Amino acid sequence: MTLKQYNIEELILLCQQKNQKAQCEIYNRYAKAMYNVSFRIVKDAHYAEDVMQEGFLKAFNKINDFKQEVAFGAWLKRIIVNCSIDFYKKNNQYKTEDFESTLYKIEEITADVAENESFNELKIKQVLEIINSLKYNYRMVLTLFYIEGYDSEEISEILNISYANSRTTLSRAKESLRKKIKEL
Q: Can you give the pTM of this predicted structure?
């Protein structure tokens, strides 16, 4: 029987015994989804891949801490989200972007999108661009809420803020998003 036929619980048990083939199988099953999670936060393909791999290493090192209170994918996703947020905070703390290059990127994207994509896809891209233009904490809570599917309580745990602060930030972020969408 190959490892592809094993269910996730069996693979986790093998990983707890440091079975590298089982780790590889888990990686293969979850890599694409975890890369997407990381990319939505890190915003760079190469860094997202690095962060994802670091997250998998952390997960495999802490696999004995997995108590099966939640699904393995959710547990792994939480690790990837935390690694991505840590990376983003560490590497974008003092980063400034040149106004001219930003303007050029926006003009280029607008031209490409208008020529190649349907109206609905255009709206989705515009909303994502608006989300990306919001300040960091608004962008982060909206990404975690709308794209990753976390609720306010989970967001407060991930970002290490109070539940009330999480709800307030989410509410303000939604309002900011609404205002910018109305400007379209």
A: 0.66
